[in-house]
Amino acid sequence: MDLDLLKTPGPTITALTAPFWAAAEEGRLSIQHCEDCKSAIFYPRPICPHCWSQRLVWKDGSGRGHLKSFTIVQKPGHPGWIPVAPYAVGLIELEEGPTMLSFILRDNQEELVIGSAVEMIPTRIGGRTLPAFRQTQSQGKGMI
Fold first, then answer.
1. Does residue 30 lie in a domain region?
2. In a domain? residue 27
3. Which domain, by its residues, includes 30?
4. What is the rounded CA–CA span in Å between residue 110 and residue 63?
5. Going edge to edge, which strands form the sheet with 56-60?
6. How far apart are CA 3 and CA 63, in angstroms?
7. Are 56 and 41 in contact (CB under 8 A)?
8. pLDDT digits (tens, 9 = 90+) for 68-125
């Protein structure tokens, strides 16, 4: 199944989240960084949750991290996802520190391993580019 053909709702793009979605369309993972405490921040916010600074800038992330948790969705909450069910979504602990929820690319037979290294793969889903992730073989965990 071609993920780009899914009839799924798109993200709600606001002035605050626009830089994230624009970077995603270009195949980049961009996250906020606080210029005062140097923390990396995700999800987009108007102030730093660590020091309350408003001095936040957007920087490209590495696109690497580790699989913190996942679930296999058998019954999607939206009918647009039914053609690809079952599919995986997971919490990705980014190399920069924050955790984000994302679609996990995998073959149906592929075993997902908590703690395995993952990398971002820009993926066309429902007519837009989203930051999805796939396990890597760099640490011998999982399969591609």
1. yes
2. yes
3. 12-135
4. 21
5. 40-41, 30-34, 56-60
6. 20
7. yes
8. 999 999 999 999 999 999 999 999 999 999 999 999 999 877 899 999 999 999 999 9
